[in-house]
Amino acid sequence: MTPLLAVAGLEAFYGASQVLKGIELEVGRGEAVGLVGRNGMGKSTLLRSLMGLVPDRRGSIRLDGRDIARAPPEAIARSGIAYVPEGRGIFGSLTVIENLVMAARPGCGGRRTWTLERVLALFPRLAERRRHGGQQLSGGEQQMLTIGRALMTNPELILVDEATEGLAPLVAQEIWRTLDVIRGEGAAVIVVDKDMRAIARLADRIVVLAKGEIVLAGRPAALAATPGLLERYVGI
Ligand SMILES: Nc1ncnc2c1ncn2[C@@H]1O[C@H](COP(=O)(O)OP(=O)(O)OP(=O)(O)O)[C@@H](O)[C@H]1O
């Protein structure tokens, strides 16, 4: 069966500096992949490259068999990938509802798994603050809104960079719970985070990046079973 995402020989450059080197990665439908590695190893660049946001990229990226390697970000978004960037990107002057409604559109084949009602049900805190402006929200609520906005596009694949960075433990827990629900509804997820325990609970597979290359990949339990392996590449 064609994988949802198939990346082959992906390279990315910032000027003369090569940040990704020959990335090979396949992600199945509804699969959750944890992308980990030390700082500066290329995790964000990989997500940004998949989204078409790194102009100098080479190699092959296929979504459901369609070549999107050279497509612009807006076409990639329309073809079914949603991106939750590090540091968030909501409209501060718009309300929670306005932020969500602006992003709404059916997914591939007209799929409407995620409606406004369902997104608000997934995030009760957003439902309570539905008329609040984006700038009035806490960091955790902003992250929920960014994920909610991504869901409103009914993506096949959602890319989440630094899912819980800087969030209080209880709020982070809530984000992990929602990512699990999202995956349960059939979307594939690639998530970057520093919380290895939470990643191991969510992910079907963990992929480790070091210096722009995938140096390790496997089921969380398999990687955890080899003493010192993750410490070497992730620093835990
Ligand atoms: N816009 C840019 N221009 C030039 N170099 C960049 C740019 N963005 C990132 N880099 C460099 O590319 C390398 C990979 O960065 P990237 O942000 O992808 O790593 P990361 O694994 O996500 O790390 P972190 O956890 O610190 O975000 C780093 O050396 C970084 O300094």
UniProtKB/TrEMBL annotation:
<dbReference type="InterPro" id="IPR052156">
    <property type="entry name" value="BCAA_Transport_ATP-bd_LivF"/>
</dbReference>
<dbReference type="InterPro" id="IPR017871">
    <property type="entry name" value="ABC_transporter-like_CS"/>
</dbReference>
<comment type="similarity">
    <text>Belongs to the ABC transporter superfamily.</text>
</comment>
<dbReference type="InterPro" id="IPR027417">
    <property type="entry name" value="P-loop_NTPase"/>
</dbReference>
<keyword id="KW-0813">Transport</keyword>
<dbReference type="GO" id="GO:0015658">
    <property type="term" value="F:branched-chain amino acid transmembrane transporter activity"/>
</dbReference>
<dbReference type="InterPro" id="IPR003593">
    <property type="entry name" value="AAA+_ATPase"/>
</dbReference>
<protein>
    <submittedName>
        <fullName>ABC transporter ATP-binding protein</fullName>
    </submittedName>
</protein>
<dbReference type="GO" id="GO:0005524">
    <property type="term" value="F:ATP binding"/>
</dbReference>
<dbReference type="GO" id="GO:0016887">
    <property type="term" value="F:ATP hydrolysis activity"/>
</dbReference>
<feature type="domain" description="ABC transporter">
    <location>
        <begin position="5"/>
        <end position="236"/>
    </location>
</feature>
<dbReference type="InterPro" id="IPR003439">
    <property type="entry name" value="ABC_transporter-like_ATP-bd"/>
</dbReference>
<keyword id="KW-0547">Nucleotide-binding</keyword>
<keyword id="KW-0067">ATP-binding</keyword>
<dbReference type="Pfam" id="PF00005">
    <property type="entry name" value="ABC_tran"/>
</dbReference>
<dbReference type="GO" id="GO:0015807">
    <property type="term" value="P:L-amino acid transport"/>
</dbReference>
<keyword id="KW-0029">Amino-acid transport</keyword>
